[in-house]
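Pipeline run #58 for the internal structure catalog. This entry was flagged by the ingest filter as a single-chain record with no existing model, so it goes straight to prediction. Upstream metadata was stripped on purpose; only the residue string is passed forward. Reviewer on rotation: M.T. Logging verbosity set to normal.
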Amino acid sequence: DDELQTDGNRSGHFRNGDVGLAPTNEEVIRIIAAQLAEIGDQFDKEIQERVVNGLVQHFMNENLSNEEITRHMSRVVRELIQAIPSDMEQEKAMLVLAMVLTKKIVNTVPFLLRRVFDTTVNYMNRQFHNYIVDMVSA
């Protein structure tokens, strides 16, 4: 249902001729994305391999539901946010951590891409939807 965009463009779904997202300033979105990527690069260095491997094991466990994996990912993000010193707002740091974890998991085990992506999108929609909307519309 969702598209993974790698070229820096937003994905929108058409409904009755209208794009599913409100019109926004593309330059603002690019600036926000660049800032998040820079923060992600900093966090990337702080995340230990054992944390990623633990998440990989959860994603590979076919007996776990997507809901259980999402809850586990949420716990890991909350634990990491306590361990990684950051002077930024907590929501932004948690959002970036979720994206960095997703990247690290997929780089470790590429065949998990769809499951990891779907779980991350679900997690972000549940936890940060309003924050993301506010950030883009600001």
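catalog note: The chain is about 70% helix and 5% strand.
catalog note: The domain at 26-137 is CATH 1.10.437.10 (Apoptosis Regulator Bcl-x).
status: ready for reviewer M.T.
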